[in-house]
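<tokenise_the_fold>
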Amino acid sequence: MRGAGCTALGILLLASQALLCTSYPLEPPAEEECLEYLQKYQPRSDAALPLKYLQENTELALAARSVSSWAQDVPWPVFLKYVLPYASVDEPRDNWRPLFFQRFLPLIQDARSLSEAALILNEKIWSIWGIVFKPNQTPEIMSPFQVIQAGHASCTGLSIFLVNALRSVGIPARMAGTPEWNTKTGGNHDWVEVLTESGVWSFTGAAEYTEQGFNHTWFVPDPARHSLSGSRRHAIYAVSWADGEGTVSYPLIWHDNDNHTVSAYDVTEYYLEAARKHADARLTLLKLNDLPAS
């Protein structure tokens, strides 16, 4: 890592390795590849970002990858796409990695797996700054520092915050959401997906930790089961840093002009299947409860 031994990053990394009692070997020199990846897929509006900003983001992303075995197990293409990026959508570009790396790494020092670390963060990070949910805050409060300063955010700001918190310790994460639920009451929603060690994307609500773990939220099975794949308004999307085969544009509904600058995948079918599984499990439970006592 470039200059790690004599920079603030070097101090942070040495401290983190001491904290976790680890000495994992660093990746082969990969900073140039990471910078090229970020610049290749960054929005045109980010072209003016200082090179130093991208370099520090890259160095700390690589540092996070180096301090736990489960972070090192994340496949390199997944790291590039879902750990390295410094943003999710069009939120203001804060330099959040130094603060998040320093504050959140101690929280997961005893985590035995990537999944366990992710759940710990969703449970514990909010109380550090007293951050709570408050509706109708987008786009005024979206970036991590805006959320910290305000002490609140709506689902979009909270989801961006959690995605960045997860990435800061090497966990692949992305924001997901729908522009409008396909129900009479409607309403939009955003949440977070984590690529767990099983290789499957799992979902959770930001600041909605539950002991049941992933894939237990208020919106599955209802209202997610009414979503429509391929519908601009009623599909479910997952943000992708890189565009490519299968990607569409993520609907930034806080813009009047239906901005098309953020890439995403239509993941509606995944949530329809999750909704069916939850509904089947509930039906099975009801049938078991109706059985006569022995």
In short: Residues 268-290 form the longest helix (23 residues). Residues 1-6, 285-291 have pLDDT under 50 and may be disordered. Residues 89-290 form a domain with the C8orf32 fold fold (CATH 3.10.620). The chain is about 40% helix and 10% strand.
